[in-house]
Design goal:
Elements lengths: L8 H15 L3 H11 L2 H7 L3
Helix pairs in contact: 1-2, 2-3
């Protein structure tokens, strides 16, 4: 699921929630990580680096 294509707003929102749950971060932080890294997997793997 972390490799899904973020092709619409619903999937982007789902990705943000996945990042929030996994990293225990606020919504704004999760959105920033997703925008910066371009995927849920990359956001999670690169958090804190």
């Amino acid at each position: 699921m972390v490799d899904m294509q973020l092709s619409n707003l619903k999937l982007v929102d789902r990705g943000v929630r996945m990042i929030m749950d996994e990293l225990q971060v606020e919504e704004n932080t999760a959105k920033t990580l997703l925008e910066k890294h371009g995927s849920v997997r990359a956001a999670i793997e690169n958090h804190g680096k």
